Amino acid sequence: HHRNSIQQLELPQRKAALIVPAFETLHYRLTFPKSKAELLSMLDMGSLYTFRYHVWPKGHAPTDYAKWRTATVPYRVAWQPDFEPYVVVRRDCPKYDQRFVGFGWNKVSHIMELDAQEYELLVLPNAFMIHMPHAPSFDISKFRLSAGYRGCLQTLREEFHQDLSRRYGAAALKYLTAERSL
């Protein structure tokens, strides 16, 4: 079912990143919803949330969950600062930037690069994933506890922005101005 709807998008002929809307549960045991309808009723009952709703809503807000609820066809969304959706892309898409190992900015920088290369950001209407609770990773703990780690990440972000400006010229300015205004 998914395969057919994805094949209809004719991805080999176009540059697109397919966004899989992400949800999360705070329960360690969950009966995985078998359909979008079932997922929506779990969302309405409060046993599921949109991903990172409590901590970092900006990361997934552009997915436009309100629109997704009733969507039956893929829809385009615009890049916004800190957008870090889970995406399905062709293997020949730009690679992750290897500076961002550990916690922080790997997905954000990747989506920025896809957007800079004019990939369409397309939300899939019938796909979804659910994040299960787990212990914090070693790296997020370091990020939270160490000012040095956060400082390094900031330096890498600035370097990454400079590289974008070199590669994409004026088109990359929107990423810098978005950063500055945060």
TrEMBL record:
Pfam families on file: Glyco_transf_49
GO-annotated molecular function: glucuronosyltransferase activity; metal ion binding; xylosyltransferase activity
Localisation per UniProt entry: Membrane
Membrane topology, record value: Single-pass type II membrane protein
Domain of life the protein comes from: Eukaryota
Keyword Ribonucleoprotein recorded: no
Keywords for the protein's UniProt record, in alphabetical order: Glycoprotein, Glycosyltransferase, Membrane, Metal-binding, Signal-anchor, Transferase, Transmembrane, Transmembrane helix
Name recorded for this polypeptide: LARG2 glucuronyltransferase
Gene source species: Centropus unirufus
Gene name tied to this protein: Large2
